[in-house]
Amino acid sequence: VYDCDHALCNAHLQRELTGIEENYKQQWAKEMNELLTEMKKYTDECKDQVKELDFEQIKALEERFDAIIIKGIEENPQSLNPEKKGKRGKNPKTKARNLLDRFIEHKENILRFLTDLKVPFENNQAERDIRMMKLQQKISGTFRTIQGAEAFCRIRAYISTIRKNGLPVLEGIIAALKRAPLTIT
């Protein structure tokens, strides 16, 4: 059992915000996109300069987040939602309102990167980690044996760990072939 908190991928949310801004001309989406970029810049600076988070600064950023949400609610009143057809199911909502509701309901998970510097802004690393497995499946369709699949996964995990720790991959592979794999401390 893992004891961990969940965070949403802000890169994906920013793509959706850009779509709402471009397709529906909603100002709140533009402002939220800019605020997320500013928040990422702030946390990147804290990480780069190895400085503590300024909780007054974080509070101010969160207040701006809340103000943009209020603007989004004003731009997306319930009356803009399409009429429900039929007797069953939930009332439909516009794409903009669905995204806005996600920002309201998952604020803590969206902003987790802002209060915990160990949490990345986006989940692109996780996607990169599984990409080679998916590519292998796409090319070959499957592995011939369980042992082959396990070996492939073990090698990919080793290479990924080496990269994440900023070590040279080729040296790591050579060390592993010499039965002296690099150890990460």
TrEMBL record:
UniProt keyword list: Coiled coil
Protein name: Transposase IS66 central domain-containing protein
Coiled coil: 25-52
Domain Transposase IS66 central positions: 3-150
